[in-house]
Amino acid sequence: MAPLFPPFDPEGKPRFAGFGRIPLRLLIPNLVTLLALCSGLTAVRMAVEDRFELALAAIVFAAILDGVDGRLARALKGTSRFGAELDSLADFVNFGCVPALVLYMWSLDQVGSIGWIAALLFAICAALRLARFNVMLDDPNRPPFAGDFFTGIPAPAGAITVLLPVYLGLLGIPHGPVTAPLTLVYTLAIGVLMISKLPAWSGKTLGKKVRRDMVLPLFVLVALFAGLLASYPWLVLSVCSVLYLAFLPLSALRYRALMAAHVAEQAAQDTPDPAV
Q: Phi/psi at 199 (nearest 5 deg)?
């Protein structure tokens, strides 16, 4: 008789059921991912109950955990195929489906079926964005600097920025007759940015190494940001969303400059030396 719970193997390789144990370091990042998924799904319940403040807090918490689980897996040397697939599925739910549902219940429902179509398109864009990201990981022809940039804005950033109309509403900006149509257009625009080829700085290399004299100022800045986020969450999230969108053109210009330098370097290497 087959066991009720087959042995877990994060790499997906067949093994004998009675041999070997899974190191705890392989499980901790996956548990963090599952916690993020629980937080994202809880946001849907909060939105259904018209508790949008808690719904947004749950989405932000899921985004924070999403940034933690990958770094935790690399720090613990606990990366695995299982973890990568689980992370992609959790990202689609947390940053594709959940923000779309929250926006629909916030204002998109006021424009009827068109609002629902906009929510669907945003979720689909998030799915396509994640699928493309997984495929591009295996691209051997990417230039070295390409790892510092995303192709299109990432799903977590898309989820945080697309909720800007909700932040503004919670700040006290009243709903008007044009609120729902503007939210619809904005939702579609963020969805297009996710599936576009716009280079967005990833920030993955930021914080890998910190100068000794910058450790204490970094702690102060992080504590300051956490305090501001806890005290003025909607204002901080609104400002961060606007600044992120404003930074995208600068990121694209930086990528273009690096690509031009890379192409020139490749051309110089491929050109034969006339002195030889």
A: -70, 125
